[in-house]
Design a protein that fits this description.
The chain has eleven helices and eleven strands. It is α/β, with parallel strands linked by helices and about 400 residues long. The chain is elongated.
């Protein structure tokens, strides 16, 4: 197999235009929205204020109709409506699991589809969002990696996933009502489909919008970006987004990691760890989450646990053990509960938090790594997956 093949970034981002041709205001950063308003004749000395007003309507109140933006003059609202749209991805299906997990399939421009998962917990609610349709990487245990079609999501499509979930949860504030501080959607994880750091600018702009205090207003401590290890973009994530970082580690030797996470051939474990060491300082965040999927007989021995501890020595870390979520045709099995507990124990005794992630929404295939649009039929064969994994 060509070592460079799975780690190319040969995907397109479609222009930020809705299908009817008018540009979408959603997804524009504040400076970009300012430019867009000036381009339709808004006086420069008013543009910043107009951005603030429109921003609040869209991201604080959840308003999509220019006519409802009552602090803008009527003819200005008409002008906005003639020049812009405010559109979100369309929800195609919505499934609710026995445990309350919700999975949405949303359709974006070009007819592509991505999945979004909402996971309610007692003290918070986490939305797992996607950054790409499919993924160019081909991690051998990941269902998304078997999807052939790939395209980057626009910033509008990334932040739009948060907005459609808030619509479904009925979580936009009502004017005049007392402020409600309990958030159903309190956390974001970029752990859906795609490699967020292969779509850096769009993901960054979308997260800036989600963090903006005059809108959705989620703290950067409540946003976690998961990467398979795109080393050159890790420093940028720290300085330009500043969110929490999770890394799909999954193996303790390059030999095994090459097979599980092929991007390791380009940026091996030592390079990855170097990049991670600097992350907490630069982003002023606390701990890096090391995600570790437990695969029976592949990466789950006591020696692996001890090696893992040695490798991450000196990095403020939490290790998140993920029981492998099986999917039809997967070339691996989940490690036994006993094995996972033993592994967790070794890590815990070394002084690290080692939570075992409870699979959620299994009955609706909503668990991590199972996301793949149901209508995307083109898939690699079991043989091809095994071959690429060097099994
Ligand atoms: N591309 C990014 C983010 C999306 S994947 C990344 O790889 O980090 C989110 C997490 O789910 C990653 O840690 C990924 O390795 C893990 N994952 C993928 N397939 C899985 C599966 N079948 N079972 C359990 N975890 C899986
Ligand atoms: Fe892509 Fe992440 Fe799946 Fe790997 S684990 S194929 S990087 S989505």
């Amino acid at each position: 197999m060509d070592a460079k093949a799975p780690i190319t970034q040969d995907v397109l981002t479609i222009p930020r235009k809705a299908e009817d041709g008018l540009p979408n205001l959603i997804g524009l950063t504040r400076p970009a929205m300012r430019d867009a308003l000036i381009a339709i004749g808004t006086p420069e000395n008013q543009a910043k204020m107009r951005v603030g007003q429109i921003w609040q309507w869209i991201y604080h109140w959840g308003v999509r109709d220019f006519d409802l933006m009552t602090n803008l003059a009527k003819d200005y609202r008409t002008k906005l409506a003639e020049n812009f749209v405010i559109t979100l991805p369309e929800v195609v299906t919505r499934q609710v699991s026995e445990d309350g997990t919700r999975k949405y399939l949303v359709r974006i421009a070009g007819g592509h589809e991505v999945e979004v998962v909402y996971i309610p917990e007692t003290d918070r609610g986490t939305l797992c969002i996607s950054s790409q349709v499919g993924c160019t990487l081909t991690c051998s245990f990941c269902h998304t990696g078997t999807q052939k079609l790939v395209r980057n999501l626009t910033a509008a499509e990334v932040v739009g996933q948060i907005m459609v979930a808030r619509d479904d949860l009925g979580e936009w504030p009502t004017q005049g009502a007392p402020k409600n501080e309990t958030r159903l959607l309190s956390n974001i994880v970029l752990m859906g489909m795609g490699e967020p750091l292969y779509n850096f600018e769009n993901v960054r702009d979308a997260m800036k919008i989600a963090m903006d205090p005059e809108g959705i207003s989620l703290s950067r401590r409540r946003i976690t970006l998961s990467t398979s290890g795109v080393v050159p973009e890790i420093a940028r994530t720290a300085s330009e987004i500043g969110c929490q970082l999770a890394v799909s580690f999954h193996a303790t030797t390059d030999e095994v990691r090459d097979r599980l996470v092929p991007i390791n051939k380009r940026w091996p474990i030592a390079d990855l760890l170097d990049a991670l060491r600097d992350y907490p300082k630069v982003s002023n965040s606390e701990r890096i989450t090391f995600e570790y999927v437990m695969l029976d007989g592949v990466n789950d021995t006591d020696e692996d646990a001890h090696r893992l501890i040695k490798l991450i020595d000196g990095i403020p870390a939490k290790i998140n053990l993920i029981p492998f979520n099986e999917w039809p045709g997967a070339p691996y099995k989940r490690s036994s509960n006993n094995r996972i507990r033993k592994f967790a124990d070794i890590i815990y005794k070394a002084g690290y938090a080692s939570p075992i992630r409870t699979p959620r929404g299994e009955d609706i295939m909503a668990a991590c790594g199972q996301l793949k649009s149901a209508t995307e039929r083109a898939r690699k064969s079991r043989k091809q997956i095994a071959q690429e994994a060097g099994l």
